[in-house]
Design goal:
The protein folds into three domains: 241 residues, FAD/NAD(P)-binding domain (3-Layer(bba) Sandwich); 86 residues, Alpha-Beta Plaits; 116 residues, Glutaredoxin. It contains eleven helices and 25 strands. Helix 1 runs parallel beside helix 4, helix 1 runs parallel beside helix 7 and helix 7 packs antiparallel against helix 8. The relative contact order is 0.14. It binds flavin-adenine dinucleotide (FAD). Flavin-adenine dinucleotide binds next to helix 1, strand 7, strand 14 and helix 7.
Length: 492
Amino acid sequence: MDTDVLICGAGAAGLTLAIDLARRGVSFLLIDQAAAPFAGSRGKGIQPRTLEIFEALDVADRMIAAGGRYPSQRHYAADGSHHDEPTVAASAATPAEPYGEPLMLPQHLTDGMLRARLAELGHAPRYAHALVGFTQDDSGVTAHVHSPVGEHDIRARYLVGADGGRSFVRKTLDIGFPGESLNARAVVADLSLSGLTREVWHRWGKGGQQISLCPLQGTTLFQLQMPIPLDGEFDLSDAGIAAAITARTGRADIQVHAVHWRSDYAMSARLADRYRVGRVFIAGDAAHVHPPTGGQGLNTSVQDAWNLGWKLAAVLRGADEALLDTYEEERREVAADMLGMSTRLLDAARERGDLRRGREQQQLDLGYPASSLSLDERGDDAVVRAGYRAPDAPCIGAGGQPLRLFSLLKSADWILLRYEPAGAAAIAPRRGLRIITVGQHAELRDHAGHLRAAYGFTAGDIALIRPDGYLAALTHDEYSPALAKYIDRLLA
Ligand SMILES: Cc1cc2nc3c(=O)[nH]c(=O)nc-3n(C[C@H](O)[C@H](O)[C@H](O)COP(=O)(O)OP(=O)(O)OC[C@H]3O[C@@H](n4cnc5c(N)ncnc54)[C@H](O)[C@@H]3O)c2cc1C
C-alpha cells in the first residue's frame, strides 16, 4: 500500500481533508490535475461555522487578519441617487459563538492559507497529477495517475474525490447527479478599477441588467458579478467587460485597468445520489453544486471534509467500518437543505436584487440530531441535543489561566466532559479520548457559568463531544450502558 488515503483535488475540500489527516498522523497523498493553484476569487465568504473549523485547524486568525468584513450594499437608482443597507446580519460574538459574522476572503487566498498550513504540517499538493482511472477491491483502491513523468499507479486504502463539480471520481463511479438547470448564467471577474470607493458593495439595475462590483477584502481588486443571457457568446475580453460596466452602471467614470480573472457559468442545483461506493468517497462540489447565492459552496465543501477526516482516521485505527457510512447519512441531508436555500436566495436576487444574508447562511445551527451517531439520554426540553454543534464556552483551568472549550477541541480527540460529578470517572481513559472534569475544585472551572448556560448542564451531567465539534452523547448517567457501548464501538 502506497498510502492510506488518496485525495483527488486540492481545492478547499481536498486541502481541509489533507490538513485534518496530517494533524492526525494519517498517511495520505493529495493530487491535483492543475499545473498550479487556481487564482480567481470565486467563493469569497467564510461563514462563522467554517471559521470555527478553521480555528481548530489553526488557520482562522491568519485568515481574519488577511480578509475583512462584508461592506454594506449601495443600491443605485436610475437617477444616480442611492441607498445603503447591510449585506450580512452581523451579531456580536458571544461566549457560545465566537464568530458573529462571515469573513470576506477571496477563495484563492483562503486556499493559499490552507496550503501554507499544510506545508507547516510537512505536506504539499502534487500539481499536474491527474487521476485518469481507478479500480477497487476488498483491501484498497488502485488509482491511475497521469503526471509529467508519465502514467503510474497509486495504491491506497481509500480514495476521496474532492475534484469539483465535474468530478471524474463521481462519473467513474456512475453516481447519479440529479437536479435542475436554474436558467441563470452569470459572469464573475476580478478587476483593477478606479472611480469607486472601496467602502461599499456597489449594485445597479434590475433583473437581467443587474451588475455588482464588490471590493475584495485582502486585495486591491473588485469582484464583478452580473447575469448574462442564457444563450450566445458574451464578450469576456477586457474591452467587453469594461463596455458592459459602462452600459449597466451608466457611469463613464469607472475605469477598468486590468481583468485578472474571468469566468462565465450556468447555474444549476444538483445533488449526488450517493457519497460513497465501497472505498471511494466524494466530497465538496463533487457531491453538490448550486448557485453562489448565500455563499454556501466553499463552506459546505470544507465541512464535508471536516466530517469525513476524523471518520477515516478512526476506521484506519480500527474503529467500526460502519462509521464511514455516517458521512453520507449526515452530509447529504445538509447539502439537500442548502441546495433549496441557495436556490430560494437566487430567486430573491433575480426578482428583487435582494442579496442580504442572515443567520441561516452562517451554518451555526446545522447539526446531526437525527444521525445514528447521536445518543441522547437527556430530556427533550434540553437547550442542546445530541448531534447539535458543541457551543464554545470560556472557562478557566485549575491553574487560573483562561481556557476556551474550543481550544480543547483543537486536540482532534473526543472530549468527555463530566460536569460536577459526584464520584470518580466511570469511563476509563483511552487513546483519542480526553476525560475532563468540570467543577469548583476540578481541572476545568466554569467560573462564569458559560458551560452551564450553553449546555444546560446540571451536576452529574455527561457530554461526549465528537472530534469535529458536534455533541455525540448527552446523559445524566455516567454508568449508562449505551454510553459505554458507544465509546467501545467508536474509539477502538
Ligand atoms: C465561477 C464560480 C463562482 C463561485 N462563486 C462562489 C461564491 O460566491 N460563494 C461560494 O461559496 N462558492 C462559490 N463558488 C463555488 C466554490 O468555488 C466551490 O464550492 C468550491 O471551490 C468547492 O471546493 P472543492 O474543493 O469542492 O472544489 P474545487 O475548488 O473546484 O477544487 C477541485 C479541484 O480538483 C481538481 N481536479 C479535478 N479533476 C481532477 C482529476 N481528475 N485529477 C486531479 N485533480 C482534479 C481541480 O483542478 C481543482 O483544483 C463559485 C464557483 C465558481 C466556479
